[in-house]
Amino acid sequence: MRILLFVLILSNSAPIFAQSPVTNTYTGKPRFEILTKSNGDTLGIINVELFPNIAYKHTRNFDSLVSQNFYDTTAFHRVIPNFMIQGGDPNSRNGPKPTWGQGQIGQPTVPAEFTAAKHKRGILSAARSNDINSATSQFFICHAAAPWLDGNYSVYGRVTSGINFVDTIALAPRDNNDCPNDKIEMFVNYIGSNDSVPVAPIQFKPVNDSTEIDTTLITYLSWKHVPDAIIYQVQFSNDSTFAQITYSTNTGNLSYAVTAGLPGNTRYFWRVRTNNGGHFSNWSPVWHFTTQKPFNDVGLQKNLINAHELLLFPNPTKGIFTIKNANELQEIEVYDELGKYIKTFGKDKLSHEIDLRKENKGLYLIKCQYINGSEKTFKLILE
Fold first, then answer.
1. Strand 267-275 to strand 203-205: parallel, antiparallel, or no bridges (unpaired)?
2. Distance, CA of 328 to CA of 371 (rounded, Å)
3. pTM, full prediction
4. How many Å from the N-terminal Cα to the C-terminal Cα in the chain?
5. Do the Cβ atoms of 328 and 371 come closer than 8 Å?
6. Sorting pLDDT into bands at 50, 70 and 90, what band is 72?
7. Measuring CA to CA, how many Å separate 365 from each of 329, 344, 379?
8. Mapping DSSP to helix (H, G, I), strand (E, B) and coil, where does residue 79 land?
9. Phi (first) and psi of residue 58, to 5 degrees
10. Whole-angstrom Cα distance, residue 78 to residue 6?
11. Cα-based distances in Å from 234 to 74, 124, 222, 285, 362
């Protein structure tokens, strides 16, 4: 996206940027204060912590630059209300304003570290060009959630206090290039480490030792929010020791969708733990459930369901999914996981195909409105 990109400019007299050697390992999440000033007056301090357990290379790069006082007097050169504030370009120290955000030749680049971490309000992430491995010193802080960036930009920190000063900067008067009219400088210092270890998540669905789980529908493994969590890791297996794992995945959500079509009459085990950016929690207790027995009637498919029951498949999907047994539907509405309306589909046949290939990957809510006025909502995973 143009507002997050910088372009490397070739120069005959490009400075050399050195990175400090790695001299220590992190005991948790390194913490920094970003002192902000404008016209010599202090605006406030934004405290942040970084995530070496999620994006070690970006954390190390930022930490190394701070140790050289690299960020001091650089500017937040691009600010967009309800989106983000971006800074950290060496050109913004004393270079011409039109060059702010363009970067300088010779800056070390950091390989992409795309994860399941979400771009929520207060998240700190790496700015880059179209090359996913082109991040250098520039970073941005989300003024508001930006889910369309998830999985495409490297999240490596978050604001722990001073988010109100992020608001102040985001709302500063700006020119047509989204650059504040008055320069907003930063001065960044290391202030310690957050060595806290998160608690294990608490599961709640499916209820432990559930039986007769319907194999024709996706099964959602769900747990409660852990305050310090950035990412959750889920393991799912038919082996209680997890020596053999059917699924192992990271997610920023509070549930994981197990694909429909699990073998019937089988016991499955699952557990989840939290990654807070500095440490993993312990694993949750191992929960289990048993899928329903397959149909034995001759001529019936193994995963046959009631002919009048609505069926959505495949789920997850790469973009196109089908609704079968839709004869009693009036219309179908699609929303994203935040409840934002996406589009409406009319219903004109028993099997209805819905195309979401132009939408961003993630969790969607499918609201089905029936002819009798009732409604039912389904969750859909778009991969």
1. unpaired
2. 6
3. 0.73
4. 21
5. yes
6. very high
7. 16, 12, 5
8. strand
9. -70, -40
10. 11
11. 41, 25, 10, 12, 17
> Token digits for 381?
């995973």
d(CA 174, CA 164): 18
Check if the beta carbon of residue 124 is closer than 8 Å to that of residue 158: yes
- How many Å apart are CA 4 and CA 139, to the nearest integer? 9
DSSP 307: T
Which neighbouring-strand residues pair with 269? 237, 288
Residue with tokens 């490009």: 14
Averaged pLDDT score across all residues of the chain: 86
Neighbouring residues of 145: CB distance < 8 A, sequence distance ≥ 6 = 118, 119, 120, 121, 338
Which runs of E-coded beta strand occur in 71-172? 76-80, 84-87, 123-126, 139-142, 155-161
Tokens of 364: 């969607």
Q: Which DSSP symbol is given to 147? A: G
CA dist 209 → 65, 170, 258, 329 (Å): 52, 50, 17, 34
Residues 6 or more apart in contact with residue 194 via CB below 8 angstroms = 28, 29, 31, 49, 160, 278
Residues of the chain with pLDDT > 90: what percent?
Answer: 63
Reply yes or no on whether the pLDDT at 15 is more than 80. no
Other C-beta atoms closer than 10 Å to the C-beta of 339 total 7
* 352 vs 314: CA distance, rounded Å: 13
Question: Is there a cis peptide before residue 96, judged by omega within 30 degrees of 0?
Answer: no
Q: Which two tokens stand for residue 198?
A: 């998160």
CA distance 232 to 225: 10
Among 378, 345, 377, 382, which residue's Cα sits nearest to residue 363?
A: 382
Closest to 290 measured CA to CA, from 232, 240, 248, 223: 240
Distance (Å, whole) CA 48 – CA 76: 15
Residue 346 CB neighbour total at 10 angstroms: 9
